[in-house]
Specification:
By secondary structure, the chain is of the alpha/beta class. It is built from 53 helices and 24 strands. The strands form six sheets. It has a five-stranded parallel beta sheet with strand order 2-3-7-1-8, with helices on both faces. The chain is elongated, with a radius of gyration of 59 Å.
Length: about 1550
């Protein structure tokens, strides 16, 4: 683990450059992060100590905390800033709108007179325009008439002009063509013509014509001159074609143009330049001719044009007059239009203002209510922003660390962190919660719709799952997280995989590519390494693509991919290497969460109308809240994006108004739905007592998995029973009566159904725990009362002095300590004083044979409730608690819960289904095969046909799988026996049953049933246990049941087959009785058997066969042979302890003797007054069965050869087992209300023990006589023994001093807490002796609790020191020695050397003295040694009679006087009338063979005088014990 300095340094480095406000805040955040990490480390240890749940705090968790803090802080800052901005923006827009509205209202008032004046001005202008328009109309009519006349003249002129133009159009093309041709000529062309000395004829002709037209002499010389003139071409082009003299034209026509070869094409063949000139001449000719024709027309045209001009001049005058009038009218119209426009503008402005006011009304009216709410939200968000750093730090700590913890631990951690944050000046919410800071109400509602329980823990869990940076691994024994994830991600096409599937990696790869969510179900405590890249999010970029490597393949990684992991294990242990890869979240159902679920289930069955309506309302409310949130976002977004005056945007206002109306309507609908939902909830609340009872019982059932790993029940299974019980419960007249019927039915049904799968020893415990938890829930049992009931011992000195005197002899120190401790319980305050003042009355209760039913002295009997009376019983007679619990169960639940329901295989079968296996959970000696055969026969199934049995073991797995597939398809029963012998195949069985559960309809035959048998094993798959019907099969309990079963299984033909029926039947009965007795003696612990052996039915059958053979084949009954074969061989073959071999033979002797067999003597004369146990008269088998049914229900210990005190031992054992089982399921809290932490308690104990630790034993302290040499020069043997013992004590002292010193340093944080120190820490908390101090370490065997053990240890060392320093004592405390056998050998050796005798011929004979110890033993014996300190169990020493005698009632361990061990010769005759009494170190008696060849527990046997036969004391289980357990 990193030290605090390193954690602080890492935090400071991470936050460097991050804006956290002031440096003090940054320093405070760093301190809080370190505190979070260290607080969780402490809680992790306490989490294991109290709940046995393991989780780890790693540096990775701390880095996750820092990273999560930074990312969440940035995200929350941005979110809060955005929200504040949005709300502020909305509020600002509304405020500005209100200001604009006020301005517009003032403007509208000012506009009214202006608008009225504009209307007046417009009316006057309308009159002026109308008047002037009339004048203009007259002028216009005259002008229009004139225009018509001018139009006629103009038309005529146009016709003349057109006619002339047509003629001109004939000549103009040729003219234009000639001009273009002239333009194309260049100097070269002219030079070409000019260069002719004698031009060609046509050229000559053309040039002459040109000369004529230009008034030049028509010869070549003149022509050349013209050609030489630079303006020649200009003259031609600008030739006055309109005024060519007729004379010239006559010459041209006559002499040139009339000639056929004077055409351009012909001339062009001679000269291109001449061609153009030819074209020009011809054009002049044509134009001249046309002009002559056009001239008259032109004259006419000129005349018409003059006439037109005159008319147009007149028309213009009139048009000018009209224009003047129209201009005036137009001016008036413009003024009118301006006036109208102004009036219209004013009107439009008024309308615009009115519309804007209307829009403003919509906006302000619709959103006005939101303004106040938005302002409040802004204030809240501002406050939140002030607390943001603290809130985010605490939330990050919760997400990073709190997932594995239960609600109480989370609350404790959160409270501590909150206080720490405030102490260092970091502001955070007053009532901080993760849900309040990170939870979105709308999202939480939707989670609820998807099946998330509504309790606070589940909501926190959902936040952890959705907000953690690492993928979540959910501890989900009830499957609630699994169901929630499936429903939440259903629309996203969630992919469901299991590591048991062969193609899980392929499905995972596909989901990663596409970006689908994946649910990995039912993981165990290890995850496949192949998914590590996904867990660690090892995404890398390549060529712009996000990739992740799965196996040897690079897979495209979609950002939409999500991974959820769930485990069915109730208390998994995930090692640190898994914890650093995932976020572990504990989804174990809470009491309140389950109660709400069961309430919904009950209401749905009892009031389906309400529940259906409720479900619809939940959906309506969730949808409505989501709609309201979306609409609010839309409104704020539109307001934020609106620019300019928002009232100008009509579409925006309408959209906002529509959105707000929808939001308001939705809010009204949601409010109505919530109101209706409240009414429905009130109606449902009536059924809460039923749901509460179901939740109480479920948590009792769930706790039982701690007691035995086979006690696993799934929540769906439990809910199924709950629902079925409600449906089948009888109806009642009114609701209150119906509730009582349902509560009673659920309690009884759950008890019966769960008891099927519980062992007998736990059925009463189950009823008791139900009764207690129901009473605690009802307030009938307080926490203080329950705590006192569970308290194993009372620490400290009682506050009241213990009573003295003859009447107080019965009050032991332990009893008085508990009575004084009861003063801390309000209901029992004053009990100790009352006992002290009424000793005789309370002694009667204490001495009663049935104190659990005895009335208590008043007023206590009247005023105490049933549990408080049980508590008093526990204080006075703890061994009777097992009976007291039955009384309490009857008072709390009813008498039908006192006795467990009988085994009913047929009823269980009728509750079964093809997909649900039935599991027989067995103990040694139990075989369900015959029960199964009987049921199969009744249901029509036969072995080998449609009933298959297979015993699992080596190589049987594949055969079992094949048979499962076959019977599943065909229908039939399959029984897989001894599943515990095939642990490696059990995971395969789990997968097969998973396939069976998931198989499509039609694939599983309705007649298929799978039966499994198994011994309890933690390897059995949890999912199989949770999804099965379980039945426990145990051998019968009690003499009557044992004999009944034995005779039920006897074959009548065999029973009647003996040649000596009377002898055989009597001995058969005796043999069955013997079998029952040795079975039942086991329940009495070590007085019954040193080791509890598991005899089987086959042992009895073998003995019966041997019995028949010996009886039939021998003329006389061979009692001794039968004793040997039966006791030593058949039953004795399982016995490994030599004292138990003696016991078995002695017990059998009571039934296999002549008197019992031939004279029908009583098996137990002591009980003849109550019931005479003997072999019945010879008769048919049924007569024996009938006789057995007359046996008493309760067996007295005498019939088993034991003293009545054995019942007390048995009851103590049973009561202790009950207490241990109850404590096992309770949180392991500390200190009995002292308020001290575990560390303080352990440190206090360690320091207290360290102060009292004795120094090591040193030879320097030795008395001269201790190690003195004998006459032969050898060292005193007892001195050698003392030296060996000193060495062992010194090793233990050094070990203890070292560990006490180290654990104190470890608690103070100076050294690492090693595994041994951690175990020692837990031992100290529970008053246990640490392992290294016990017999498997440096110590010795002992069953004492720590305080008593240490006191005993001090006394042992003190005794050894007194021997060392003061010389050999008068009597030796035999209990003080590590190796008492060594002491006996040394003592014999000392005697042998003293008298020069061979030691191998010597042994000790024991004589019981009158003294009790060193105090009254003044000196050692002449020969041999005195020993003291032993106790006798199963008997006592009677000093008056000088022999062993029956124990006093209630005295389980009688102190034994000093024994004088006198050496004797082996050849001396053995003393008569003695019992060879075994001597043990502890009352467990069972031991193992050590390396010295001696038992680790059995020391030796002593011959103790007796007046009764030795067999009586052997059957009593009498033995000497070195030390007690207290």
């Amino acid at each position: 683990a990193w030290p605090k300095e390193a954690l602080l340094s890492v935090a400071q480095h991470q936050f460097k450059g991050v804006d956290l406000g002031t440096d003090d805040i940054k320093t405070g955040v760093c301190d809080v992060c370190v505190a979070i990490h260290y607080d969780v480390r402490g809680s992790t240890k306490r989490f294991y100590d109290e709940l046995r749940r393991i989780t780890y705090t790693t540096p990775t968790s701390y880095l996750e905390l820092l990273t999560l803090f930074l990312s969440t802080l940035a995200e929350q800052r941005e979110r809060i800033t955005q929200q504040i901005s949005r709300y502020h923006g909305g509020v600002d827009k509304l405020i500005k709108t209100n200001e604009v509205v006020d301005s517009m209202k003032a403007e509208l008032t000012e506009m009214q007179p202006i608008l009225a004046q504009a209307q007046k001005d417009t009316s006057k202008l309308l009159e002026d325009v109308a008047r002037d328009q009339a004048s203009a109309d007259v002028v216009k009519q005259e002008t229009e008439k004139e225009e018509a006349e001018v139009t006629v003249i103009a038309t005529e002129a146009e016709a003349i002009a057109a006619d002339a133009q047509r003629d001109l159009d004939e000549a103009m093309p040729a003219y234009h063509a000639s001009v273009e041709a002239l333009k194309s000529l260049d100097k070269k062309d002219i030079q070409e013509v000019k260069s002719y000395a004698k031009p060609p004829e046509l050229v000559q002709m053309v040039m002459e014509a040109v000369c004529i037209l230009l008034n030049a002499k028509p010869d070549w010389t003149e022509a050349k001159k013209l050609l030489a003139d630079t303006s020649f071409m200009d003259q031609l082009q600008s030739y006055d074609k309109d005024n060519i003299p007729d004379k010239l034209m006559s010459k041209i026509r006559k002499g040139y143009t009339s000639k056929p070869n004077f055409v351009p094409d012909t001339v062009g063949k001679v000269s291109s330049a001449a061609r153009s000139l030819c074209m020009w001449v011809r054009a002049m000719d044509t134009y001249s001719r046309v002009a002559t024709q056009v001239a008259p027309k032109k004259a006419k045209l000129e005349e018409a044009t003059k006439k037109l001009n005159d008319a147009q001049a007149l028309l213009k005058e009139k048009q000018d007059a009209l224009a003047e009038v129209e201009a005036r009218v137009a001016s008036l119209k413009q003024k009118l239009q301006a006036a109208e426009r102004k009036a219209q503008d004013l009107k439009e402005k008024e309308q615009d203002v009115q519309k804007k006011l209307e829009r403003a009304g919509k906006l302000v009216g619709g959103l006005g209510s939101e303004k106040d709410r938005w302002e409040q939200l802004c204030e809240k968000l501002e406050a939140s922003r002030g607390n943001l750093i603290g809130n985010v730090a605490l939330c990050s700590g919760a997400i990073a660390y709190q997932g594995p913890f239960t609600a109480d631990y989370r609350a404790e951690l959160t409270n501590g962190w909150t206080k720490r944050a405030r102490d260092v000046g970091i502001p955070c919410e007053e009532s901080f919660s993760v849900t309040g800071v990170l939870g979105d109400p709308v999202t939480i509602r939707e989670w609820g719709v998807h099946g998330l329980p509504s309790d606070q823990l589940s909501i926190e869990n959902a936040i952890f799952v959705t907000r953690s940076r690492r993928w979540p691994l959910m501890i989900d024994p009830q499957g609630q997280a699994n169901s929630w994830v499936k429903r939440m991600e259903r629309d996203n096409k969630v992919v469901i995989i299991k590591l048991s599937q062969s193609d899980y990696l392929r499905k995972l790869e596909s989901a990663i590519r596409v970006g689908l969510p994946v649910l990995l179900e039912n993981v165990e405590e290890a995850l496949e390494p192949s998914i590590d890249p996904v867990l660690l999010k090892q995404v890398f970029k390549q060529s712009g693509r996000n990739l992740i490597r799965l196996g040897d393949t690079d897979v495209d990684y979609s950002d939409d991919f999500k991974l959820y992991i769930t485990s069915k294990l109730a208390n998994p242990h995930y090692p640190p290497e898994i914890c650093i890869k995932v976020t572990i979240v504990n989804f174990t159902v809470t009491f309140k969460g389950l109660e709400n679920q069961l309430l919904a289930e009950c209401a749905a069955l009892e009031r389906p109308d309400l529940e259906e309506k409720k479900e619809k309302l939940v959906l309506t409310i969730a949808s409505g809240r989501r709609t309201m949130a979306d609409l609010e976002d839309k409104i704020l977004k539109m307001l934020a994006e609106a620019s300019g005056n928002i009232l100008d945007d009509e579409d925006l206002i309408n959209t906002l108004d529509s959105s707000k109306k929808t939001s308001s309507e939705t809010e009204v609908a949601v409010s109505a739905a919530e109101e209706t939902s409240k009414e429905i909830d009130e109606a449902r609340e009536a059924y809460r007592p039923v749901a509460c009872r179901g939740s109480i019982i479920y948590f009792v059932v769930a706790d039982f998995a701690t007691i035995d790993p086979m006690y696993q029940y799934s929540l769906p299974y439990f809910k199924g029973i709950f629902a079925d019980t409600i449906v089948k419960a009888p109806q009642a007249d009114d609701l209150e009566a119906r509730l009582q019927v349902l509560i009673a039915a659920i309690t009884r049904t759950m008890y019966v159904m769960i008891c099927r799968g519980l062992f007998e020893r736990h059925k009463a415990l189950f009823a008791f725990m139900n009764a207690v938890q129901i009473a605690r829930n009802a307030g009938l049992v307080t926490d203080a009362e329950w705590k006192l009931f569970l308290q194993p011992a009372v620490l400290g000195v009682p506050h009241l002095p213990k009573p003295q005197g003859e009447d107080a002899f019965w009050i032991e120190d332990r009893t008085w300590a508990f009575l004084c401790a009861a003063d801390d319980v309000p209901s029992l305050f004053g009990l100790a004083e009352h006992v002290n003042g009424n000793l005789s009355a309370w002694r009667d209760v204490f001495s009663s044979e049935s104190p659990h039913t005895a009335p208590l002295p008043e007023p206590w009997h009247s005023k105490l409730k049933p549990f408080q009376k049980l508590l008093v019983l526990k204080l006075l007679r703890p061994e009777k608690v097992v009976f007291g619990t039955s009384v309490f169960i009857g008072a709390q639940l009813g008498q039908e819960f006192v006795e467990a329901p009988p085994f009913d295989l047929e009823a269980t079968f009728h509750d079964s289904a093809p997909r649900t296996p039935l599991i027989f959970v067995l103990v040694s000696g139990a075989d369900p095969t015959q029960y199964l055969f009987n049921l199969a026969k009744a249901q029509g199934y036969e072995l080998g046909s449609n009933l298959h049995l297979i015993s699992l073991g080596q190589g049987q797995g594949p055969i079992a799988e094949r048979l499962m597939d076959q019977t599943k398809a065909e229908g039939g029963w399959l029984c897989l026996q001894n599943c515990h012998l095939a642990e490696s195949w059990l995971p395969k069985l789990d997968r097969k049953l998973e396939e069976l559960r998931d198989a499509p309809e039609g694939d599983v035959n309705e007649d298929f049933r799978l039966w499994l048998t198994t011994m309890p094993t933690p390897k059995f798959p949890v999912t199989v246990l949770q999804n099965s019907l379980k039945l426990t099969i145990e051998p019968p309990k009690g003499l009557k049941a044992n004999l009944g079963r034995a005779y039920a299984e006897i074959d009548e033909k065999f029973f009647e087959s003996s040649a000596k029926p009377a002898i055989f039947k009597n001995m058969m009965f005796g043999l069955a009785f013997f079998n029952a007795v040795i079975q039942e003696r086991r329940k009495y612990g070590a007085v019954g058997w040193n080791i509890p052996y598991q005899w089987m039915t086959s042992d009895l059958v073998t003995a019966q066969l041997n019995l028949k053979m010996y009886v039939d084949e021998q003329p006389e009954v061979p009692y001794e042979a039968l004793m040997t074969v039966t006791a030593d061989v058949v039953f004795g073959g399982r016995i490994t302890d030599k004292m138990d071999v003696r016991t078995a033979r002695t017990v059998l002797d009571a039934f296999f003797n002549k008197d019992a067999v031939e004279n029908y003597a009583s098996y137990c004369p002591q009980l003849d007054s109550r019931f005479k146990y003997q072999s019945p008269s010879e008769g048919p088998l049924e007569s024996y069965r009938s006789y057995i049914t007359s046996f008493p229900l309760v067996d007295r210990p005498e019939i088993f050869g034991l003293h009545q005190n054995a019942d007390i031992s048995s009851q103590q054992k049973e009561s202790k087992e009950i207490a241990d089982a109850i404590i096992a399921v309770q949180p392991r809290t500390s200190s009995g209300g002292s308020g001290k932490s575990n560390d303080e308690i352990v440190l206090e104990i360690a320091e207290d023990l360290a102060r009292q630790m004795p120094p090591a034993l040193s030879r320097k302290e030795a008395h001269s006589s201790v190690f003195r040499k004998l006459a032969d020069g050898s060292v005193n043997p007892l001195g050698i023994f003392l030296g060996h013992e000193m060495s062992k004590f010194n090793k233990l002292i050094i070990q203890m001093q070292s560990m006490l010193r180290e654990i104190a340093r470890a608690i103070k944080g100076l050294v690492v807490m090693s595994a041994d120190l951690d175990a020692m820490y837990a031992n100290f908390l529970f008053q246990q002796v640490p392992g290294p101090w016990g017999e498997n370490g440096k110590g010795y065997p002992s069953l004492k609790p720590l305080s008593s053990w240490f006191k005993d240890f001090i006394e042992r060392v003190a005794f050894m020191r007194s021997w060392l320093s003061g010389g050999p004592p008068s009597t030796f405390w035999i209990s003080a020695f590590f190796f008492p056998q060594g002491f006996f050998t040394s003592a014999l050796q000392a005697h042998a050397r003293k008298f020069q005798l061979p030691i191998d011929q010597l042994l000790f004979r024991a004589s019981v003295m009158e003294s009790m110890g060193i105090a009254d033993t003044p000196s050692p014996p002449e020969n041999g040694v005195y020993i003291h300190g032993m106790f006798m169990e199963g008997a006592r020493w009677n000093p008056q009679e000088g022999c062993i005698d029956e124990s006093h009632y209630g005295e389980l361990f009688a102190p034994v006087p000093v024994l004088h061990l006198q050496p004797a010769n082996l050849e001396d005759p053995e003393p008569k009338s003695t019992f060879e009494c075994p001597f043990y170190k502890t009352n467990v008696r069972a031991g193992t063979l050590s390396t010295t060849g001696h038992s680790t527990n059995h020391v030796c046997n002593f011959d103790i005088p007796t007046k009764l036969e030795a067999g009586h004391w052997i059957r009593r289980g009498a033995a000497l014990i070195s030390q007690l357990n207290e």
